[in-house]
């Protein structure tokens, strides 16, 4: 992919105002060219085949094929990185999570009032997201491959033995998953395949705004044997449960009268991300010491790296997702490049490995035994 040409973007939106506004914002960047715009999904799909854009922005509410139907068709027939344009509402969050689970790379949240004067507020974020998506080489191929992953089905004996015969030298008492861009699609390939009686709590720090983590937790709860929930202040931290740090807030784990509890807070307010993997993992190290196991998965940036360094210094372990199965190889790359990863695993092996640490195995049919 040459860096000497402009980033080609296709805008699909049924609103003429939004098509014009998004095009204006993108082209003001100088290194982005809007090669075409479409007023509905079918027209957009045909223009994708014609123009082969680097990135597509896609609205949800459109006549004919809606955003989800259009996305599904794109991912199956002509995979290309898609950025969804979403609203900050509960309904908008639910549909966004569905889109991300279908293979959308990322989403751009906008206030309901943004259709009028506030729309320009999203300009810098829109441009940054387009540039970051473009930087990911082979992202369309990876998205298609990840979307097609089916965990635990039609596994041959050879595939089964590919799970490493690896376990920490001491008992693991908690797991933290740090994840960002590509998270909803990837977590759907992990959490539903964990054993129902996993003897530890799992905390997930997924970079997302408010409301979106609740929708993601509810979706995964329906798919999983484990209880999956968005964490609330004063929740008890219990085994066989998965807790999402709420979007826009930090999650802390602490000792409370002999129990392990969760604190949710907007502070510190000077972190790049909120929720932040480093903040949550550091609080878990304070409680669990080296017995917390971090798994750093797909995402931009390097959130989690500093806390993992601290954990490694006291004898802990860490797992990183591999490059080929990461939608964006940023956060796991920081772990791998700094020699902090004890295991580097493809997405379809992460649930297997977690189960194996706690002596649970998959049968060839894909069932946990």
Automatic annotation (TrEMBL):
<dbReference type="Pfam" id="PF00072">
    <property type="entry name" value="Response_reg"/>
</dbReference>
<keyword id="KW-0378">Hydrolase</keyword>
<comment type="function">
    <text>Involved in chemotaxis. Part of a chemotaxis signal transduction system that modulates chemotaxis in response to various stimuli. Catalyzes the demethylation of specific methylglutamate residues introduced into the chemoreceptors (methyl-accepting chemotaxis proteins or MCP) by CheR. Also mediates the irreversible deamidation of specific glutamine residues to glutamic acid.</text>
</comment>
<dbReference type="GO" id="GO:0008984">
    <property type="term" value="F:protein-glutamate methylesterase activity"/>
</dbReference>
<dbReference type="GO" id="GO:0050568">
    <property type="term" value="F:protein-glutamine glutaminase activity"/>
</dbReference>
<dbReference type="GO" id="GO:0006935">
    <property type="term" value="P:chemotaxis"/>
</dbReference>
<dbReference type="InterPro" id="IPR008248">
    <property type="entry name" value="CheB-like"/>
</dbReference>
<comment type="similarity">
    <text>Belongs to the CheB family.</text>
</comment>
<feature type="active site">
    <location>
        <position position="303"/>
    </location>
</feature>
<dbReference type="InterPro" id="IPR000673">
    <property type="entry name" value="Sig_transdc_resp-reg_Me-estase"/>
</dbReference>
<dbReference type="InterPro" id="IPR001789">
    <property type="entry name" value="Sig_transdc_resp-reg_receiver"/>
</dbReference>
<dbReference type="GO" id="GO:0005737">
    <property type="term" value="C:cytoplasm"/>
</dbReference>
<feature type="active site">
    <location>
        <position position="180"/>
    </location>
</feature>
<feature type="active site">
    <location>
        <position position="207"/>
    </location>
</feature>
<dbReference type="GO" id="GO:0000156">
    <property type="term" value="F:phosphorelay response regulator activity"/>
</dbReference>
<keyword id="KW-0597">Phosphoprotein</keyword>
<dbReference type="InterPro" id="IPR035909">
    <property type="entry name" value="CheB_C"/>
</dbReference>
<keyword id="KW-0963">Cytoplasm</keyword>
<protein>
    <recommendedName>
        <fullName>Protein-glutamate methylesterase/protein-glutamine glutaminase</fullName>
        <ecNumber>3.1.1.61</ecNumber>
        <ecNumber>3.5.1.44</ecNumber>
    </recommendedName>
</protein>
<feature type="modified residue" description="4-aspartylphosphate">
    <location>
        <position position="59"/>
    </location>
</feature>
<dbReference type="Pfam" id="PF01339">
    <property type="entry name" value="CheB_methylest"/>
</dbReference>
<feature type="domain" description="Response regulatory">
    <location>
        <begin position="8"/>
        <end position="125"/>
    </location>
</feature>
<keyword id="KW-0145">Chemotaxis</keyword>
<dbReference type="InterPro" id="IPR011006">
    <property type="entry name" value="CheY-like_superfamily"/>
</dbReference>
<feature type="domain" description="CheB-type methylesterase">
    <location>
        <begin position="168"/>
        <end position="361"/>
    </location>
</feature>
């Amino acid at each position: 992919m040459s860096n000497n040409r402009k980033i080609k973007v296709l805008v699909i939106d049924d609103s003429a105002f939004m098509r014009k506004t998004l095009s204006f914002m993108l082209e003001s960047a100088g290194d982005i060219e809007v090669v075409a715009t479409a007023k509905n999904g079918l027209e957009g799909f045909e223009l994708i085949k014609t123009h082969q854009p680097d990135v597509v922005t896609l609205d949800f509410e459109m006549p004919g094929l809606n955003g989800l139907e259009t996305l599904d068709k794109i991912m199956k027939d002509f995979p290309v990185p898609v950025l969804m344009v979403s609203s900050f509402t509960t309904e908008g969050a639910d549909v966004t999570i569905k889109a991300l689970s279908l293979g959308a790379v990322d989403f751009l949240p906008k206030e309901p009032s943004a259709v009028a004067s506030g729309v320009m507020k999203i300009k810098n974020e829109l441009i940054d997201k387009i540039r970051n998506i473009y930087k990911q080489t082979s992202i369309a191929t990876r998205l298609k491959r990840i979307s097609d992953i089916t965990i635990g089905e039609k596994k041959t004996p050879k595939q089964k033995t590919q799970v490493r015969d690896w376990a920490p030298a001491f008992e693991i008492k908690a797991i933290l998953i740090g994840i960002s861009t590509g998270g909803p699609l990837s977590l759907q390939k992990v959490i539903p395949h964990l054993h129902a009686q996993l003897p530890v709590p799992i905390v997930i720090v997924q970079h997302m705004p408010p409301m979106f983590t609740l929708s993601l937790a509810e979706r995964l709860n329906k798919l999983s044997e484990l209880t999956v929930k968005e964490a609330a202040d004063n929740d008890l931290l219990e085994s066989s449960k998965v807790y999402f740090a709420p979007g826009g807030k930090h999650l802390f784990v602490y000792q409370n009268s002999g129990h392990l509890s969760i604190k949710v807070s907007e502070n510190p307010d000077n972190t790049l991300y909120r929720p932040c993997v480093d903040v949550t993992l550091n609080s878990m190290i304070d409680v669990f010491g080296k017995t917390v196991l971090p798994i750093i998965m797909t995402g931009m940036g390097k959130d989690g790296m500093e806390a993992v360094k601290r954990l490694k210094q006291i004898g802990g372990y860490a797992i990183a997702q591999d490059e080929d199965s990461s939608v964006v190889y940023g956060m796991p790359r920081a772990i791998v490049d700094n020699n902090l990863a004890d295991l580097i695993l493809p997405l379809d092996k992460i649930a297997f490995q977690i189960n194996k640490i706690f002596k649970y195995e998959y049968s060839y049919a894909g069932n946990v035994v």
